[in-house]
Amino acid sequence: MDLYTVTGIIYSKFDIASFLADCLSRGGVQEVTLGCGFGAATVSLMWILTCARRNFMIFFATFRYSRIVVMLSLRFPDLVFVLALVLPSISVFAESAEEKGLAIAQEANRRDDGWVDSKVNLEMVLKNAKGDESRRRMRLRNLEVENDGDKSLTIFDTPADIKGTGLLSFSHKVEPDDQWLNLPALKRVKRIASKNKSGPFVGSEFAFEDLSSQEVEKYKYRYLRDEVLDGQETFVIERYPVDKYSGYTRQIAWVDKEHYRMLKVDYFDRKNSLLKTLHSTNYQKYLGEFWRPGSMVMYNHQTKRSTELHWQDYEFSTGLKDSDFTRNSLQRAR
Description:
Radius of gyration: 27 Å
Distance between the termini: 77 Å
CATH superfamily of the largest domain: Lipoprotein localisation LolA/LolB/LppX
Helix content: 10-25%
Structural class: mainly beta
Largest sheet: 13 strands, antiparallel
Oligomer: single chain
Number of helices: 4
Order of helices and strands: HHEEEEEHEEEEEEEEEEEEEEEH
CATH class of the largest domain: Mainly Beta
Strand order of the largest sheet: 11-10-9-8-7-6-20-19-16-15-14-13-12
């Protein structure tokens, strides 16, 4: 048998019927085995067919990903050939909207894994419905935690009346997040109760829950559609918070297809009315792989107020450790 002819049939057409007919019509072939699989994909159906003196088996498996590995075994009277082919972008079974939404979120999370820790300076600009502005400057420290959510510490430097105010957050994948707010004027550290995390952070349009790391497990997902946003091809997915105390019933997110960056998020309140929209722009790549926005704007459709965050001077892998993210470090931070 001509192996190159078989390879051509499989790769260019993936026509199993023609392939089997061709194999069985050739006098030297004693047995043909064709198996499809991806990783540990479970075999859901197996047929064993007999045709004269030549046997062949076809294995059908359920696939979720975009590549299929085809294993081909050709048994001759004295030799056995095994051929492995990789076929890109063949969909065996349709992917549900929930599965696709989750897969997009998981891929975005995978691409942002491994930055270890970071430091960044921010300017916060608050605008009321009349357009009046107030500005605040702060520092943010982050630490990746293996098999759990990230830790973060935010400290305000200006204006003077809130200098030293800080927020310590321990995000979790499944359990409710832990958050503490340091209020120097009152000389106390206040724990933020789970049921209060939908409240505004120091008068901004960002809620406390918006400031925790957005772990995949915090939501259930559904793919909605593809859409062009500001000239960029995006996936549009809907996500539903798992936390019963969340201030949102659902969120709609626009994720760019090339780099899996979150470009826009619509937030719907507990009455399922559009509450806020977040736009993230001016992305830059750090360490050759991690994308971070230069600006974020959260606009409240109901109050007409907005909060801008402008990010500056990113640093990564700076040597931060767990001891830098404690209640004592929150109180000491200046």
